[in-house]
Amino acid sequence: MVAFCLLALCICAGLVTDFGLAYVNKRQAQTAADAAVLAAGGVFAGQAGNCASLTGNTDLMRSANDAADQLRLENLPGSPDADLESSCATGTLTLDYHVNINSPLAFGQMVMNTDHVNVDREAQVTLRAVAKTVGACALCFLGTEQVDTGNADYTVTGANIHINGNLTAGPNGVWTVSAPGGQIGASGTVRGGQFSPSWTPAPVIPDPLASMPLPLTTTGLTAKSNPCTDGPGIYGDFAFPKSVCTLKQGAYVVTGKWGMKNNSTLTSGGSGVTLYFKSPDGVLDAKNGTIDNLTAPTGPPSGAPPGWPSGFAIIYDRDNTNGISAQGNNSTTVTGGIYGKSATLEFNGTSDFHFVGGPMVVKGGTGNGNQGTVFVDGAVNVGGNQRISAGGTEMTK
Predict the structure, then answer these.
(1) Which residues, at least 6 apart from 86, have a Cβ–Cβ distance to it below 8 Å?
(2) Per-residue DSSP letters for 243-278?
């Protein structure tokens, strides 16, 4: 009886040892699977694309699988190779990873009729889709070369600032965005300046107003000589007098230089006007003058041919490289949008550009005076590409 009991106790002890080791191996395999699948999910997190494009990216899948294998081996050395499995069946990106290991049996062979027990543990993570708008802006500098803004200040309330090229700002140049979650994005390098919030790297964006039909048609508009008295029409060179010029409501096509002198004031008196400067010679040169209360129409300008856009006070042709100038010591107030894809906003001295609504889409800006400012108030972003990214990983199994 004693011998029989001792034999039974030895067998039980052997089984406890075998299956206890299998339990330990199961825990280690689960830890390895958890760590591995989380590492794989980290490779996908932040990547742009939908589930199908992400899982179809062989380089990305290979990197994720390598990251999973590395964590598996760190947690369970010597374990067999495993493959990362992906699925889009639920509409989200799901990653599965199985870890297999054979746990040896000694006395357990008498019960299991095999020299090992297979331990297979699985872990799964799901990555949520995150939609983010990239490149939307109300003050948009589209030039991809160097932008040198000196010590000028730029402030936008309610929207974003974006700079496509490299930016050099003076030590006293202050850039401010006042909007919840507002951004100052720059695609190149940034030197100097003070930024609130801090500028962030951003991709080069296309023209957010590329759909605007330029050049605009001038059908039905007639050539005229004095915009201060003649109203909407087509104008060549014009030197504004040293007095107040109030434009009548409507559409103005400018094929030459509109120049201003000391004590010249250009206004629309609150009436909706759109000034369209055609290539190659159309230019607004408001040196020393004042643009006061130039207001864009809320719809297409009165009497304009079909195709003219709404809400723009100043439009330059896309290939018009002439500057939009308001130099000197006077202020400029414009309600509505300004578009000059190839034009530079020039406001040297102590000029002050005050815009309401916007947007302002130009090639670049220059402002060398310490008090030079551009203020875009109540702005609304234009453009921007919605990028779908894989968000944070959530362990689901």
Answers:
(1) 55, 61, 93, 94, 95, 96
(2) SEEEPPSEEEEE-SEEE--TT-EEE-TT-BEEEEE-
Same domain assignment for residues 237 and 304? yes
CB neighbours of residue 303 within 10 Å: 15
Please check whether residues 147 and 113 belong to one and the same domain. Answer: no
The C-alpha torsion from 273 through 297 and 155 to 328, rounded to 10°, is 10
Backbone angles phi, psi at 38, to 5 degrees: -70, -40
Structure tokens belonging to residue 141: 């500098």
Q: Is the dihedral of CA 177, 183, 185, 189 positive or negative?
A: positive
Tens digit of pLDDT for each residue in 112-128? 666 667 778 899 988 87
**Is this model's pTM higher than 0.85 or not?**
no
How many C-beta neighbours within 10 Å does residue 193 have? 22
Residues 295 and 154 reside in one and the same domain = yes
Least trusted range by pLDDT, from 178-182, 218-222, 300-304, 305-309 = 178-182
Q: What is the mean pLDDT of residues 362-378?
A: 79
- Going 270 to 271 to 272 to 273, the CA torsion angle's sign is negative
